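Recap quiz, item 2
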Amino acid sequence: MNLTPLVQSFVLHFGEMGSRWGINRTVGQIYALLFVSARPLNADEIAEALAFSRSNVSMGLKELESWRLVRLLHQPGDRREYFSAPEDVWAIFRTLAEERRKREVDPTLTMLRDALLVQPDNEPDRHAQKRMASMHELIELSTSWFADVQKLDERTLRQLMKLGSAAQKLLLMKDSLKPAATRNKKAIEP
Amino acid sequence: MNLTPLVQSFVLHFGEMGSRWGINRTVGQIYALLFVSARPLNADEIAEALAFSRSNVSMGLKELESWRLVRLLHQPGDRREYFSAPEDVWAIFRTLAEERRKREVDPTLTMLRDALLVQPDNEPDRHAQKRMASMHELIELSTSWFADVQKLDERTLRQLMKLGSAAQKLLLMKDSLKPAATRNKKAIEP
DNA sequence: TATACTTTTCAGGAATTCCTGAACGTTGAC
DNA sequence: GTCAACGTTCAGGAATTCCTGAAAAGTATA
């Protein structure tokens, strides 16, 4: 199994990008390969295509499975495990976002909430808590909004994005339904 | 300069989180410390508080400056450089998003565009290109939308987020202004 | 149950990243 | 100009992460 230059460059790029994130080069490349592959691949094919050891591929696939980014399937009459990346890029994006939330955002929110429960007994802590509160609010608000928006189906989401902010702003201009409550809340907050 | 337990746990958490991203522990901790600090700090204070070498702090601060996450300032009658994190968490978020776009998204888009220009001469490449095209579209659409939304001021953004998706969906129901164009485009695309 | 095929685990070497102290560079005060 | 205070650079050791081959474990077939 030989990679075409086109696929090669895609795979290499994702290897690089992977290492900018927590993900290592191997895992990035494996995912990239599965993403562009026209059919599911087994571990041996991947190992050969990318020139990684069989065990490295095995670990990489496990990692990808833990991120729910690959699907495991079987071919009739073949004992080997085949892997593929889901088709729908929007679904992939959703999975990625969800998984990152679980691993990064939620623990951070927990830490912040705990920190905010402490009764500060000195000036530095009082200030630190104010900062943490503002961070907590931002994260809370944006993740819950994101979760909400992600429930929309692809077509609706696409439309919303294409509309951009201009039309959405119009929605607020009316200043009729919800905004009143919003404004009141805002007025109470310091 | 001694950290209170409250600040300590915040700083340590960000050190950990930092290493999940490309950012290393040191840089994460320095940023966290500056974020909760009530006043700007100089490099020596940071080095002492976190028990890092002076040179390590120097490199960390340089990294943070390259991300535009810290502000450099001077105290009257003091030759040393003082650093602080901007107050406004929304602005911080914006900066972070912009910087990540520059470093990760833009190069990826460039790579994808280049790949899409190639005239594929075999089946695997034809399929790979289709996959890359769908990825390209998703990234293009979501980043341009994000850039657009980020131009809104904090108050408006807050309101929009609080409305959630429900109200935004209403906007589309009307199916009057733009959606026609959107639907046509969609119909043309395979 | 034995066999062949497949996947997983893991010790340890390779590669990379991190961090430090020492040397060097720069700047302002005297 | 000299000196002290401060910032930066960088070689190389420390720590971490990555990757591999060998061995073990698992599994379908006969």
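Chain A has a mean pLDDT of 88.
The longest helix of chain A spans residues 89-117.
End of item.
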